[in-house]
Specification:
The structure holds two protein chains of two kinds.
Chain A: H1 3-25, H2 34-47, H3 58-80, H4 98-110, H5 117-131, H6 134-142, H7 148-174, H8 181-193, H9 195-206
Helix pairs in contact in A: 1-3, 1-7, 2-3, 2-5, 4-5, 5-8, 7-8
Chain B: no helix or strand
């Protein structure tokens, strides 16, 4: 464990807590893409298959349970909570996220480190996470006024993988044989997809104006 | 380590 990865995990944890806070306290999921939440639930479900077979550390297991629990409960809230689901804008959240899963699965079947079920699913989760934010970014462009919590959620979610890039650089130089091209490339692509959001997010913060993404 | 690489990151 290094400071970059710990900062990344804490940023990731903060993003899911911000979203849970928003949905649980103000009972609203306005501006939140259910599609992105479903993709993230699938990302964690396919990435943490080893939660029962490989024990790494208490921290690792606890964080996996938190990410699994929070992502599935957010999906449940938006789909089934009698008050929250009324604020879900399904006419705007129209990204065909199923079309994201298929190429990710195909790519995982061809480009992976080991051809085993767990490894292919793990690789699928990496590719899927790289594009999972797309429905949310599309929804933000359609949502005229983005509330602060949703903006903070997306910012933290993008920042966590950016911090992981520093973690991979650090581990590359400190641990022999730590080479994971697939993880690195997927992580860089994922972070780059947030580039324009980060730009407009900082602009709105600097000029102290409401965050708005150009359509 | 001898064991095949475990994915020790989240």
């Amino acid at each position: 464990m290094n400071i970059f990865r710990l900062a990344g995990d804490m940023t990731h944890l903060a993003s899911v807590l911000v979203l849970l806070l928003k949905i649980h306290t103000i009972k609203s999921c306005a501006g939140v893409s259910l599609k992105t939440q479903e993709l993230y639930a699938l990302v964690f479900a396919t990435r943490y298959l080893d939660i029962v077979t490989d024990f790494i550390s208490v921290y690792n297991t606890v964080m996996k349970l938190i990410f699994l629990g929070s992502s599935f409960s957010i999906v449940w809230y938006i789909r089934h909570h009698r008050v929250v689901r009324r604020s879900y804008d399904k006419d705007q959240d129209t990204f065909r996220h199923y079309l994201l899963m298929i190429p990710c699965m195909l790519l995982a079947l061809f480009v992976h480190e080991k051809f085993t079920f767990k490894e292919v699913m793990w690789t699928f989760s990496l590719y899927l996470e790289a594009v999972a934010i797309l429905p949310q970014l599309v929804l933000l462009q359609r949502t005229r006024n983005i509330d602060n919590l949703t903006g903070q959620y997306v910012f933290l979610l993008g920042a966590y993988r950016g911090l992981y890039i520093f973690n991979w650089i650090y581990r590359y130089f400190t641990e022999p044989h730590f080479v994971h091209w697939i993880t690195w490339i997927a992580g860089v692509v994922q972070t780059l997809l947030y580039a324009d959001f980060f730009y407009y997010y900082f602009e709105s913060w600097k000029n102290n104006v409401r965050l708005q993404l150009p359509a | 380590r001898g064991k095949n690489f475990q994915h020790d990151e989240l």
